[in-house]
Amino acid sequence: MRLLVVDDEEDLAEVLRRGLAREGFAVDVAHTGTQALGLAADGEYDVIVLDLRLPGLSGYEVARQLRAREDWTPILVLSAKDGEYDQADALDLGADDFLAKPFSFVVLLARLRALVRRGRTPRPAVLVTGSVTLDPAARAVSRSGEPVSLTRREFRLLEYLMTHADRAVSKTELLEHVWDVGPDADPNVVQVYVGYLRRKLGADVIRTVRGTGFRVAS
Fold it and tell me: Which conformational region is residue 43 in: left (phi greater than 0), alpha (psi within -120 to 50 degrees), or beta?
């Protein structure tokens, strides 16, 4: 397995390189965000271990740019910036896991193995389907670049439909995942909220799939 370790603390980066090499990983090292983006573009890695505090280009920006160019290499953030907002920002920008310094090498190895098993699956931080864009972190929606104001329930419904844009989603599934209600709930509430979304986003955005449910138009 091939890893890219990105950390401006050269001594720590070397310790990580040696320790991971002993565990059978092939390891490349970068000390700046710019170096990291260059190495990531030139070679395929199984996981990127990324610090947030980097000279010039921060780890946040590295993660954002990697995801923007549809590089889905799993990213494990390894950082002394361990506040809850630091972690939330890193994950919202596309990181897959977060481990605070100081850390356990045993735990680091276990998390790396878990990320390797997950592999390179598309998981964009911002959802785009057709002309509709949804940013879960910012709780923002737009169509053709124009912002659209949604209620919390409308937002959750649209987010679920866009997350599963490759298929039609049934009313029952939407009730379970968006409303979190029991099997006796009235499915007509889904139809009502789909109507709200159509009025705000356009009638063509959500299609009815006869006998199945609803699907976001691509």
Answer: beta
